[in-house]
Write a structure and sequence with these properties.
315 residues, alpha+beta, TATA-Binding Protein, Nucleotidyltransferase, domain 5, 3 domains, five-stranded antiparallel sheet, 41% helix, 18% strand
Length: 315
């Protein structure tokens, strides 16, 4: 089946109850919006090694979203009177059709701190087998963005205590080292590529599959870096991979927890509170930091290539 055939199949099911937009091309597939009155969400279809994959992760949890899921899964045409549909909550699995056979596993990687002015850049990788997937599911592993700070730190500790230390890797690039690195390469994607591959290398064994939360338009960057280390495997790189792979979801939690712990250490060292992100609040804290410690020390706590840095200096 071609990707367009799958789109036409879904459209023929949904059109009686929903408006289905013309598809747009994305990496590895297409996406299109589905709407009804105030409801409007996106469905994506990917064409992978194992065939067509329909991604319903963007639908949300509204009654309309449940109608769409049931319609696609069961082939039931949505009806305006069908308002009490209930389906089981979707579980995150290694559902990208990455094989786990003959003792090999799936390695997922994700990062945290990329968009935060203060704090480090953290990349983590987790290797799963069917047994580890079951453990992670029992712990409650899911995308770190669905968890608050306390939950991320708590679940990260449970992950580390529940699986072997050789099944996960966390790379922390503190601000001082980060700024030196960026000054040399002038490209964040290079920094991300090197650190993702470094974490993956710690876990990789011949035959393992790799899935990465996509961070660059050019997939070849990661592929080339892997080959530099004699890892001749084509990784799956897709946006929001943490919604599709429990290995990536676990990696997202480990990365976020390490980032949060680093921020807390900075809070204690400099006797203050460093906010996340790059908002006006961040700029105000940055200005206060300079007043207290001097401009020359901002690189100890912040990513200096952010426009936020020049905004603070201009105050």
């Amino acid at each position: 089946m071609k990707i367009t055939d799958k789109y036409n199949e879904i459209r023929s099911i949904l059109v009686p109850g929903f408006d289905v937009d013309t598809p747009k091309e994305i990496n590895f597939g297409i996406q299109f919006s589905v709407s009804k009155k105030q409801f409007s969400r996106v469905i994506r279809i990917y064409d992978g090694k194992k065939g067509i994959k329909v991604d319903l992760s963007q639908l949300g949890t509204s009654p309309e979203a449940e109608e769409i899921r049931v319609a696609i899964i069961e082939g039931v045409v949505p009806s305006p009177v069908n308002k009490n549909i209930s389906i089981p909550e979707e579980k995150i699995t290694a559902s990208i059709d990455l094989p786990v056979t003959n003792g090999h596993g799936v390695i997922g990687s994700d990062e945290s701190g990329k968009g935060d002015f203060f704090g480090p850049l953290v990349v983590a990788a987790v290797k799963t087998t069917p047994e580890i997937e079951s453990i992670l599911d029992g712990i409650g592993v899911r995308d770190c963005k669905q968890l608050n700070d306390y939950q991320n730190i708590s679940i990260a500790k449970q992950i580390k205590s529940s699986i072997s230390a050789d099944m996960f890797s966390v790379k922390i690039l503190e601000p001082v080292a980060y700024n030196k690195y960026y000054e040399n390469v002038q490209n964040l994607n290079i920094i991300l590529t090197v650190n993702h591959v470094s974490a993956i290398r710690d876990l990789y064994q011949q035959g393992d599959s790799i899935i990465i939360d996509k961070f660059s338009y050019h997939d070849s960057m990661v592929e080339d870096e892997l080959r530099q280390w004699n890892i001749d495997v084509k990784p799956v790189q897709i946006p929001r991979a943490e919604d599709q792979s429990i290995a990536v979801a676990a990696a997202s939690i480990l990365a976020r927890a390490a980032f949060l712990e680093a921020i807390q250490e900075m809070n204690e060292k400099y006797i203050g509170t460093f906010p996340k992100g790059a908002s006006d609040k961040v700029k105000k804290v940055g200005a206060k930091f300079i007043e207290k410690y001097g401009r020359d020390r901002l690189h100890e706590v912040a990513k200096m290539h952010f426009k936020t840095a020049s905004d603070i200096w201009g105050r």
